[in-house]
């Protein structure tokens, strides 16, 4: 059965409970599938100059043109973010669209969080004799080596997964070999462990 199109609308209105210098604030009502949410436009207008039907300020003054331009931009940006979310195949609701517009994204996962998740799952398998306790210990040591590398290379103790570049493995290998003076075989085992964790993170999205 074909899914019905999603409803989406934007409406500006005057919020007389929010005034500045006697002028009500212009608010935006965003509706997606009958779920509504409000956004402040940070624009204020004399109610005598507001045309609700046309959704604009009915004046030729510079102030009116500036307000109308801001409203047009805001509406266009929301339409752009709505289309973007649809193109990604993500479920769209009013709250998600508002957050996308305001730049409030999902919490960014870090490499240490990825290690924590990976090692916790590995430990659960160790507890039922599906994995080796010695391998878990090496994974935990690898995480500490990564933290030391981040502190040396970037002056931080953790890093967003979005900021991990392809050069990470080569830089980490160089650090282990030259700064920590670890042998080649052991270094490559640490690299392998890091790749294993990053693969899990990628597989989990």
Bin the strand percentage.
15-25%
The ordered string of helix (H) and strand (E) elements is EEEEEHHHHHH
Low-confidence spans: pLDDT under 50, at least 5 residues?
none
For the terminal residues, how far apart are their CA atoms?
29 Å
Biggest beta sheet summary: 3 strands, antiparallel
Q: What is the number of E strands?
A: 5
Average pLDDT, to the nearest integer?
90
Bin the helical content. Answer: 40-55%
Q: What is the alpha-carbon Rg in Å?
A: 26 Å
The helix/strand class is: alpha+beta
Please tell me what the overall shape is. Answer: elongated
Number of helices: 6
Strand numbers in spatial order across the main sheet? 1-2-3
State the domain count. Answer: 2
Description:
The model has no long low-confidence stretch (mean pLDDT about 90). The longest helix is centred in the middle third of the chain and has 26 residues, at about 60-85. The chain starts with 7 loop residues before the first strand and ends with a helix. It has helices at about 60-85, 95-100, 110-125, 135-155, 165-180, 185-205, and strands at about 10-20, 25-30, 35-45, 50, 55. A three-stranded antiparallel sheet has the order 1-2-3. Strands 4-5 form a two-stranded antiparallel ribbon. Helix content is about 50%, strand content about 20%. The radius of gyration is 26 Å and the shape is elongated. It folds into two domains: about 10-100, no CATH class; about 110-205. Helix 4 packs across helix 6 and helix 5 (about 165-180) runs antiparallel to helix 6 (about 185-205). It has about 200 residues and is an alpha+beta fold. It is built from six helices and five strands, in the order E-E-E-E-E-H-H-H-H-H-H.
């Amino acid at each position: 059965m074909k899914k019905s199109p999603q409803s989406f609308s934007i409406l500006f209105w005057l919020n007389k409970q929010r005034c500045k210098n006697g002028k009500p604030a212009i608010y935006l009502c965003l509706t997606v599938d009958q779920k509504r949410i409000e956004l402040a436009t940070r624009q204020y207008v004399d109610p005598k100059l507001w045309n609700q039907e046309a959704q604009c300020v009915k004046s030729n003054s510079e102030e009116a043109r500036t307000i109308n331009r801001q409203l047009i931009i805001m509406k266009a940006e929301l339409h752009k973010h709505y289309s973007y979310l649809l193109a990604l195949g993500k479920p769209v609701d009013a709250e998600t669209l508002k957050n996308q517009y305001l730049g409030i994204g999902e919490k960014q996962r870090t490499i240490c969080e990825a290690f924590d998740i990976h090692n916790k799952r590995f430990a659960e398998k160790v507890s039922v004799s599906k994995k080796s306790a010695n391998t878990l210990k090496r994974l935990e040591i690898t995480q500490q080596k990564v933290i030391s590398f981040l502190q040396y290379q970037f002056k931080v103790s953790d890093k967003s997964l979005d900021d991990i570049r392809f050069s990470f493995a080569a830089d980490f290998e160089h650090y282990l070999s030259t700064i920590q003076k670890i042998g080649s075989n052991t270094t490559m085992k640490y690299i392998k462990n890091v790749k294993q964790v990053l693969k899990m993170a990628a597989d989990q999205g």
